């Protein structure tokens, strides 16, 4: 009998742990916003400058200047329940009794899906140095949290008719949330977009045979193929106009690995040949499962009347939801 009671208590305890996350409230705040919990004097001093240099620097490859994140300073004395449920929190725990500096990366502490970065240091000077030494990790952790929220919603509220049609051509597909429509699909090209009155968030997917050449994933080759496929498949509003790669700001390439998939990421600006439309784009170039083709999944934004950071971050996150067909 005692063994039965003990087993029941263990099961109840485990169930309680599993349900803790389910009982958390939903996060608050705007996407792309971070609450920075720090004394006002430190916020206005060197530590605050380090935070802004890291998290409010210019977002890359946007036509107008926009910060990487929008920062809101909240002094520790004001950090109550209202702010504890925010989606992104950077918390500075400064205490002279702290023996060793550290950064804690935590999720779903007071709300879900929440991202909390806690910097533990004896003073603001040591905290600033710690932040500088670990800046890329801090940014990556917050970026992943923002990305995961978009992917989670894309899967939960998916336009389920699109992915199977894309996967039939490319062997895999991202998850497209509600609002996206399949504008075009051929044997080697797909165009999916969420179009509003003044904005467009688009995803282009295309493939071409891999040659095995050492430079086939070089920036020059990727852009050359991009311009070729866009001229053929993405016309502008008027005759003799088409999407191409902008030259005002040369594109940049970075080689990344995400959840077991290697790809070349290119950031740049797109424009319309013989017209005045344009905006930012991000592309992922990677090999097909059998290695015979190079697949390119590209996100772009057209939003001439609005800031573009969040539009681009949303549609770029969809690229990371790519899954191979089963």
Blueprint (SSEs and pairs):
Layout: H1 2-23, E1 33-37, H2 40-43, H3 46-55, E2 70-74, H4 81-84, E3 88-94, E4 102-107, E5 115-121, H5 124-133, H6 135-156, H7 162-170, E6 172-173, E7 181-185, E8 189-195, E9 200-209, H8 219-233, E10 242-245, E11 252-258, E12 261-273, E13 278-287, E14 293-302, H9 309-319, E15 323-324
Parallel strand pairs: 1-2, 1-3, 3-5
Antiparallel strand pairs: 4-5, 6-15, 7-8, 8-9, 9-14, 10-12, 11-12, 12-13, 13-14
Helix pairs in contact: 3-5, 6-9
Outline the structure in words.
With 326 residues, the protein is an alpha+beta fold. The protein has two domains: 136 residues; 166 residues, Protein Transport Mog1p, Chain A, CATH 3.40.1000.10. The protein has nine helices and 15 strands. Strands 7, 8, 9, 10, 11, 12, 13 and 14 form an eight-stranded antiparallel beta sheet that branches. It has a five-stranded mixed beta sheet with strand order 2-1-3-5-4, covered by helices on one side. A two-stranded antiparallel sheet has the order 6-15. Helix 3 runs parallel beside helix 5 and helix 6 crosses helix 9. The N and C termini lie far apart (48 Å). The relative contact order is 0.12.
Concise description?
This protein has 326 residues and is an alpha+beta fold. 33% of the residues lie in helices and 31% in strands.
Features:
single chain, 326 residues, alpha+beta, Protein Transport Mog1p, Chain A, 2 domains, 8-stranded antiparallel beta sheet, 5-stranded mixed beta sheet, 31% strand
């Amino acid at each position: 009998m005692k063994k039965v009671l003990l087993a029941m208590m263990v099961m109840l305890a485990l169930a309680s742990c599993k349900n803790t996350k389910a009982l958390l409230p939903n996060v608050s705040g705007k996407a792309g916003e971070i609450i920075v919990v720090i004394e006002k004097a430190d916020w206005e001093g060197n530590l605050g400058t380090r935070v802004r240099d890291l998290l409010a620097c210019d977002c890359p490859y946007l036509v107008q200047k926009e910060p990487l994140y929008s920062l809101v300073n909240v002094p520790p004395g004001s950090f109550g329940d209202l702010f504890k449920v925010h989606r992104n929190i950077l918390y500075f725990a400064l205490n002279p009794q702290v023996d060793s500096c550290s950064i804690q990366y935590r999720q779903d502490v007071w709300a879900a899906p929440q991202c909390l970065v806690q910097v533990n240091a004896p003073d603001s000077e040591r905290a600033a140095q710690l932040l500088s030494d670990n800046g890329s990790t801090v940014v990556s952790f917050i970026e992943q949290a923002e990305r995961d929220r978009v992917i989670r919603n894309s899967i939960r509220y998916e336009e389920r008719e699109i992915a199977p049609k894309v996967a039939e051509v490319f062997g895999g597909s991202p998850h497209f949330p509600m609002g996206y429509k399949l504008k075009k699909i051929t044997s080697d090209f797909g165009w999916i977009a969420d179009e509003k009155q003044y904005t467009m968030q688009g995803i282009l997917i295309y493939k071409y045979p891999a040659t095995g050449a050492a430079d086939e994933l070089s920036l020059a080759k990727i852009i050359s193929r991009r311009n070729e496929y866009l001229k053929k498949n993405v016309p502008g509003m008027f005759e003799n106009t088409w999407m191409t790669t902008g030259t005002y700001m040369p594109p940049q390439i970075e080689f990344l690995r995400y959840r077991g998939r290697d790809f070349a990421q290119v950031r740049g600006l797109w424009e319309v040949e013989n017209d005045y439309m344009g905006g930012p784009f991000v592309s992922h170039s990677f090999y097909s499962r059998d290695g015979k083709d190079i697949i390119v999944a590209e996100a772009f934004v057209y939003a001439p009347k609005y800031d573009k950071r969040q539009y681009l971050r949303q549609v770029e996150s969809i690229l990371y939801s790519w899954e191979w067909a089963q």
